[in-house]
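This section describes the prediction task in plain terms. A model, or a person checking by hand, is given the sequence of a single protein chain and must write out its three-dimensional structure as a string of tokens. No templates, partner chains or ligands are provided. The sample shown here is typical of the held-out split.
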Amino acid sequence: MQILIVEDDGDIASLLKRGFASEGYDVEWANTTAAALEQGGGRTFDMIVLDSMLPDGSGIEVCQKLRVAGPNSATPIIILSARDGVNDRIEGLSAGADDYMVKPFAFEELLARVHAQDRRQKQGDKLRNAAIINAGGLTLDLSLRELTYDGGRVELTERECELLAFFMRNANQPLSRHAIFDALWEGQGGVSINVVDVYVGYLRRKLAKPGDASKSFIHTVRGVGFVFRSPEQPEGLPHTYRTQKE
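The expected answer:
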């Protein structure tokens, strides 16, 4: 873990550096707002421990600026402050801090809070990654129902997103209409298997590039159903069945 300590008190900074280093962390130190913004804007850290009062400005303002843009806009930030009022805590958390700790403090408690923030960050990364599928040059964000490819973005309906996710998870594998229907529409009364062709058509139109309809991601497999593959993938590789574009 790479930690940035922003603290102008040399004794406290030394304590933090020794403590984190003994835990195997890579520690950088800044003692002014200028140095904090320079280091925080130039490289990504896993955690930032930030003093609220610095000799050339406010640590709260540093937190706000780091949150606007740059490599640490989402990095967990723990503010250390001698101010223990409720309004002070609210100000720090409202500026974008993830935690607020009052001085004087025990290093063991700070370390526990760092570990807690790290766990939350990693869990959040897992959830975000689980909600994103990459296949065939496409990136599908399930949480936003948004498709990205060739620098463009396409919004999908809930069912279109589910169908495309099913195709992408089974890229290069022929899928029968019945398999697709059972996966997405099973148990829904009044819906016929023809709904598969309807939604495949919707997806094809949304995936088509203006002026280049020949490049398709979803192909018809004679006697089987459909297959999802990249337009750049040579036909017949790695699968051996023949495809026909509708």
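For orientation: Residues 132-228 form a domain with the Arc Repressor Mutant, subunit A fold (CATH 1.10.10.10).
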